[in-house]
Amino acid sequence: GKDPNPGGQTEGSKWQKPRLSRKSLMKCCLVKWIIASTTQQGPEWDSSDSDLELSMVRHQPEGLEQLQAQTQFTRKELQSLYRGFKNECPSGLVDEETFKTIYSQFFPQGDATTYAHFLFNAFDMDRNGSIRFEDFVLGLSVLLRGSVTEKLRWAFNLYDINKDGYITKEEMLAIMTSIYDMMGRYTLPSVRDDSPFEHVEKFFQKMDRNRDGVVTIDEFIETCQKDENIMASMQLFENVI
Amino acid sequence: MAAGVATWLPFARAAAVGWLPLAKKTMPKPPVDNSSRSDEILYVNVSGVRFQTWKNTLDRYPDTLLGSSEKEFFYNEDTQEYFFDRDPEMFRHILNFYRTGKLHYPRHECIQAFDEELAFYGIVPEIIGDCCMEEYRDRKKENQERLAEDTEANEAMDAPLPPHSTSRERLWRAFENPHTSTMALVFYYVTGFFIAVSVIANVVETVPCRPPKGSVKELPCGEKYQLAFFCMDTACVLIFTFEYLMRLFAAPSRCKFMRSVMSVIDVVAIMPYYIGLVMPENEDVSGAFVTLRVFRVFRIFKFSRHSQGLRILGYTLKSCASELGFLLFSLTMAIIIFATVMFYAEKGTKGSTFTSIPASFWYTIVTMTTLGYGDMVPNTIAGKIFGSICSLSGVLVIALPVPVIVSNFSRIYHQNQRADKMRAQQKVRLARIRMAKKGTTNAFLQYKEDRDRDSDSTALCVKNKSAFEHQHHHLLHCLEKTTNHEFTDEMTYSELCMTESVGFRTSRSTSLSSQQGAQNNSTGCCPRRARRRAAMRLANSTVSVSRGSVQELDTLHVKTTSIPPQTRSSLNAQADDLKLNCGEQDFTAAIISIPTPPANTPDESLPPSPAPIPGILRNTRATAYTHDTVKISSL
């Protein structure tokens, strides 16, 4: 039959004495705990076991030759990169939390976690929640050794949060807010609440040719190629590795 | 985590490309990086164990030895590697720090050795990882405490009295360290005896004695032999008062002394007697007087000066004050709770002994400490149930803080044992040092004999002395020539001292440790020979070695006077104008001394050589020199 909710969902109606039906009994935490501790440790056992397994899973990257073919790095560079990567992440995978921690170390004054989240998604191309060495190295290859168009494409991919090929104002606002968050509170002049919004407006004015409220990849690349400041600055990070 | 940050920085910089399209201003130029990109493997040879690592690994920490250009000093061109003459076991940990960014402390290693290695490689110990930091800190603190109390013990116990010590200082020292002089020891035992006598008298005077003639009632002995006990009490109190006044007089800081625990105990022990004298024989105050007599039992605490164990116990209780406080507090809480419960549980029964809650306190205490006298017993079932819970919880509450107190006591007791052992070992050490001193000087004197005999300073290959000894002896010889005086040995000097006991002039001492200078009068010479510490007396040289800055190694003090240059042969003759400084001199061997003194003092490193004393006057020769390989220290 109908069992009254012991929590008393109905407001205003008379308080009904909770009846001891089976369903309500099962909702009681004490009962749940007793049942859980007395039943066989079957499902819990397995889950903890599988947790153990997951942590021991090791990811092996593709072979050196394949990576050499896919990226623009030399063999020695790849070796050096992998040694550093493996030293930091012995399991071969970087999950999002670790990534956020690492990236936040470089921006101690502000909060870099949101931007790190977007960055993580930009690197994690197959969307499995962790960056493997291949993703890492492919991303770096584009950023450091790729052509200007490739770099711009990568940037577009970063801004396009839902990867649907269009940058909307909301997406851009999110990105901009996260970038301004990295600055922290103590800046000169101080970051006003609408600074990101203003910045987004300026961006859209520049990029959105057809004023449809979104920026497509072609608009983006075209506009950037026309801007000589941007083109000049693309060469800046060539020598990072 | 410097390593991690360094690895990821290029990645973070690369990701900055994402900001470029959004930038409001132009980007700054990147820094020029001139360092060679290619990574190479470095070879590090530590006492034969070869380590190899990437150059980048070492470069992670540029403010350490291995990460900076300082390691170039250790580069061996022939073998193309960096050679360190250090412990390879420790180096393993150091290198792992570079590799992983975490420094671990190996638990089986000596803390000082580890610290030295860290200091050598330029690594601050603060970066030890959390996993090992606690252990490291604990060991370090323990080591420091041990060193502190060892040096303290050394200084306190055997420090010689400064010669200017007033009688007051001597008196105080006699009181604090009874074994320094026989008088003090006698006094120590006498006071101990009288404390015992006093305590026993207090105890015995309450024992019922046979009733005196003509009476049936038994009297306590105190009333039967009232006069005898009174005399004994008076004697004891006189002794204690005398002791207290002497201590008060001798104390360096009277206020501090009066505030100290022992002094308070002394006062409390003797005050009742005086108050009893002063107080009139009044019925009203006799009750108070009786109470005062109770305080006489405090005399037993005076024994704590005589017994180290008692002092340790007192110190333990003091250091466990918080645990004891906790015990007391929790007990009080439990007593109140259970007393209340028992009272209300037993309220109804007729003739119940639980008349009130405070009355139930007694029951609760007796039950919780599992005494169970049985004078108050619950009758109701509820009472019995709560009574059993009470006794069970009592055991628990009392058992909890006790192990803490016990472990504290054990630690302090062992510390004291160690201090005693150190003191005993000191005597052996001193004996060895004396032997070493003798050996070295004899070696040098032998060298001089040979030299004079052969008149050829290079013909010394008869004795197989090392290059070190040769150079050392040459150095001492240079010093002799500088000051125009010669070294000699104890026998010669002491014999001279004895023969010159009459007609000494006040010795003019050129010593730089002037504290021992001016006061040294001639009469002080030979009686001082009775001092236990070896006094090496050297005639014939103005060499005086001031106390070099040697930590924890004794220095050789050679006190000399200005004496006109004499050859050895003239020592046999009685020289009237021989001024010998036979003052109070303390000699200790210098094993390694760092030169801080002015010009005419030598540094003596003494390689011990177990040779018999070549008494110059006797002209004996040691037949064979066997040199120990120990060069530096025989400590």
Q: Strand sequence of the main sheet of chain B, in spatial order?
A: 2-1-4-3
**Could you please say which CATH topology of the largest domain in chain A applies here?**
Recoverin, domain 1
Give the name of the CATH architecture of the largest domain in chain A.
Answer: Orthogonal Bundle
CATH superfamily of the domain at 177-306 in chain B: Voltage-gated potassium channels. Chain C
Q: Return Rg of chain A in Å.
A: 26 Å
* Highest CATH level, the class of the largest domain in chain A: Mainly Alpha
| Structural class by helix and strand composition of chain B | mainly alpha
Sum up the structure in keywords.
heterodimer, A: 241 residues, mainly alpha, Recoverin, domain 1, two-stranded antiparallel ribbon, two-stranded antiparallel sheet, 13 helices, extended, disordered N terminus, B: 635 residues, Potassium Channel Kv1.1, Chain A, Four Helix Bundle (Hemerythrin (Met), subunit A), Helix Hairpins, 50% helix, disordered C terminus, cell membrane (chain A), transport (chain A)
Folded structure, characterized:
The complex is a heterodimer of chains A (241) and B (635). Chain A has 241 residues and is mostly helical. Chain A is 59% helix and 4% strand. The longest helix of chain A has 15 residues, at 42-56. The model of chain A is unreliable at 1-12 (pLDDT under 50). With 635 residues, chain B is mainly alpha-helical. Among the domains of chain B are: 41-151, 2-Layer Sandwich (Potassium Channel Kv1.1, Chain A); 177-306, Up-down Bundle (Four Helix Bundle (Hemerythrin (Met), subunit A)); 315-428, Helix Hairpins. Chain B has a four-stranded mixed sheet. A two-stranded antiparallel ribbon of chain B has the order 5-6. In chain B, a hairpin with a 2-residue loop joins strand 1 and strand 2. Chain B is flat.
